[in-house]
Amino acid sequence: MTTAVTSAGSTAAQSNPLPAASQKTSGLSSDFETFVKMLTAQATNQDPLEPLDSTEYAAQLAQFSMVEQQTKSNTLLEGLQSQLGLANMAALSGWVGMEARAVAPGHFDGSNSVTIAPNPAAAADSVTLVVKNSNGTEVQRVTLPVSAEPYEWNGLDDDGNALEAGEYTFVVESRKGDDLLLAEHAEVYFKVNETRMQGGDVGLITPGGSVVLASSVSALREPAG
Q1: Labelling 22: which of 62, 109, 111, 221 has CA 20 to 30 A away?
Q2: How would you label 30-49 residue by residue, b for 16+ Cβ within 10 Å and e otherwise?
């Protein structure tokens, strides 16, 4: 059974001994103290006959204070986003062991087929699946029906010999006559081995070690068999 997925985005901060936001806040605080010392020194040593414009310095002080408060607010928001991201990753841990569908490399283990979900152009009269290895080298072309039905790629070359185990990418070319209407990477089904924070999103680890963002997943299903 396949379950459609509408969205699975999340936000989180990766672990860091000193987060960037903390570094910014620390630096800004130091600059603020330096600014106050300079302002005090200038006011103390000003020429009585040409006094400094206190209005201008007050405006600068107020502006600096606003920036400092904004940075503190951003730090607080990033902390909240990190907590939400971790909660989302915990929720998506239920995906581990299931098969997700997304535009991603398909892992061929040398024997088991890779399920591909083509989406050819409706106006096409011929469809070709272009198979490329992990180096981007084309290794095979397969004629497909003009249909969005899943296709099981068995990993055999044109002579019936198994290709090397590894990751392969799949491009679906839709043609009408001699004209190429569309060429796009096909979605594949892959088993989710692990969930992991990946920048601002939850990453799904494939059997081949690739990372697929959870927000790019379009469907889930129970493992075949």
Answers
A1: 62
A2: eeeeeeeeebeeeeeeeeee
Domain housing 116: 100-190
CA distances 24 to 28, 48, 66, Å, are 6, 38, 14
Q: Tell me which amino acid residue 179 is.
A: D
Residue type, 63: Q
For residues 153 and 185, membership in a common domain is answered with yes
Residue with tokens 């249909």: 147
CA gap 8, 202 in Å, rounded: 8
State whether the Cα torsion 23-29-30-34 is positive or negative.
positive
Inter-residue contact 209 to 192 (CB < 8 Å):
no
Are 174 and 219 in the same domain? no
85-140 tens-digit pLDDT: 555 666 777 889 999 999 999 999 999 999 999 999 999 999 999 999 999 999 99
Q: Are residues 198 and 172 both part of a single domain?
A: no
Q: Are 90 and 106 found together in one domain?
A: no
Q: Kindly state whether residues 137 and 92 are assigned to the same domain.
A: no
Asked if residue 175 and residue 90 are part of one domain, the reply reads no
Contacts for 73 with CB less than 8 Å, ≥ 6 apart: none
In the numeric block, which tokens belong to residue 192? 């989710």
Strand partners, 211: 205
DSSP 161: P
Same domain, 60 and 121: no
Residue 198 has pLDDT above 90, yes or no: no
CA atoms of 94 and 99, how far apart (whole Å): 11
